[in-house]
Amino acid sequence: MRFQATLALLASLSLSSLASTVADVEADLQNIATQTTTLDNAINAFPNTGGSLLNALAIHNDAVNLGSAIDKGTSDVNGAPKPFSEADGTTVLQAVQAIEPTILDTLTVIVQKKAAFQGLPIGGIPALVLQDLQNLNASTFKFEAALISAAPTDLIPTATTIESAINSAFATAIAAYSS
Ligand SMILES: *[C@@H]1O[C@H](CO)[C@@H](O)[C@H](O)[C@H]1NC(C)=O
Predict the structure, then answer these.
(1) To test the ligand 1 pocket, which listed residue (137, 142, 167) has its Cβ within 8 A of the most ligand atoms?
(2) Higher-confidence residue: 8 or 144?
(3) What is the model's pTM?
(4) H or E segment to which residue 45 belongs
(5) Residue ranges per structural domain of the chain
(6) CA–centroid distance, residue 141 to ligand 1 (Å)
(7) Cα 147 from Cα 149, distance rounded (Å)
(8) d(CA 159, CA 139)
(9) Which residues form the pocket of ligand 1, taking CB atoms under 6 Å from any ligand atom?
């Protein structure tokens, strides 16, 4: 029993000290890019009238998957050695810059689709979209803070500019679904 308890303790210690690397963060950003594109495509494809509940629920699913991908990114940034080197920081920043337009498009088009979601024969979808937006906003806030805390000093202004643009797009979309 004692021996097993010691083993369990050792296992949990080694798990909790497992560090991540910048390569993990780059892989996470790849995944976030893929999931963002999937979500953006699904939202753009949702028809302005006559959309199906199935497609609306698929959008919800895509949003949940994106949230998990972002949360994994946050925990890997938090587990990686900081600050990132200049080269790594630049690679990470460029990956984020590459995703930014898709995030902004998603948040713009979701607002344009509110009437389409309201028009579905089953209610509750706009409320579900609002909840997804709030969850994604919260996950994104944490990821942004983690990335900025890891960024080399000279890259922080650019990172902060991206952060502001994304946060303000979230605020606009959340406001549209809150009224
Ligand atoms: C987005 O999330 C952050 C952190 O949880 C929160 O402070 C902010 O108010 C949220 N934005 C909106 C528009 O709800």
Answers:
(1) 137
(2) 144
(3) 0.90
(4) helix 22-45
(5) 32-178
(6) 7
(7) 5
(8) 17
(9) 134, 137-138, 141, 170-171, 174
